[in-house]
Amino acid sequence: MWLSKLKKTNKKEVSLNSKSIVRRINNILFGTGSYLNADALSKIEKILIEADFGYKITQELLSSIKNAKMDVNSNNIISPILSQYVKSILTPSIKPLENSFIHKPYVIMVCGVNGSGKTTTIGKIAYKYRNMGLKTLIAACDTFRASAVEQLGIWAERAKCDFFAGSENADPASVAYKALDKALNNYYDLLIVDTAGRLHTQNNLMAELAKIARVLSKQIPEAPHDILLVLDTTTGQNALNQVGHFLSLINITGLVLTKLDGTAKAGAIVNIISNHNNLKIRAIGNGEKITDLSDFVLDDFCAKISVT
Prior knowledge:
There is one protein chain. The chain has twelve helices and seven strands. Helix 10 links the parallel strand 5 (226-232) and strand 6 (254-258). 44% of the residues are buried. Helix 2 (21-31) packs antiparallel against helix 3 (38-50), helix 5 packs antiparallel against helix 12 and helix 6 runs parallel beside helix 7 (146-159). The two termini are 26 Å apart. By secondary structure, the chain is of the alpha/beta class. This is Fused signal recognition particle receptor. InterPro entries: AAA+_ATPase, P-loop_NTPase, Signal_recog_particl_SRP54_hlx, SR_rcpt_FtsY, SRP/SRP_N, SRP54_GTPase_dom, SRP54_N_sf. It comes from Candidatus Xenohaliotis californiensis.
């Protein structure tokens, strides 16, 4: 089958993918004289792999397509099969960000690789809770780059939240400890702890995440109450690799998905949850505005994949 010949998708193919997975499959089905012949199945497999569903899920979807009794004259043959499968995997894993906290201060630790949208996501989360009337403190624990502290400070100002930063090159765990101390002594409802944007392959920097989590738990045993991983959904299969690396060091409790407005790599999300079904999708962030944070709506996600 096509899988053994898989090559990198070029920009034109990505553009086609982003229109609709279902549309491309339907075009293949309408164009074959022998319904679901070997050539058609090979082309469908290619589309699903390009969308980063992964080998296992792709084979399961192909099996469902082959076994289904479908009307070839329908203009939307595949949508019900794909939507039902996606919903069966993702439905148990959708958990929006809390609207109230049992623990105060509630501690959210945010991590992610460079370019994932981590800093803007922190600003959006802080704005959401500040608008709910919660006293919120943002801690800048990315002390490796002065620009990172400055950028986060700008987002804290936009969100009208308090901001805590240590000196340049200070120990990130020490900054986190002092920030939580301030949150405890000044009765904050929420502390959001930023961490250094890093490649998931940088072991020494990744180990710093576990250290921050340990230090926070010394003051509040349950802290951090949430550890959110910000994922750029356009990275596809690489996003799955990132999740695995982060989970090997810290207890990621939820995902914030960014750049989900395109569906070229939509299968990656399904693939991630299928491999790590204890993870929860907490929110999505599309756009640069501070209000561009919303719950993950499964019906909307399936509709984008299935547009015909």
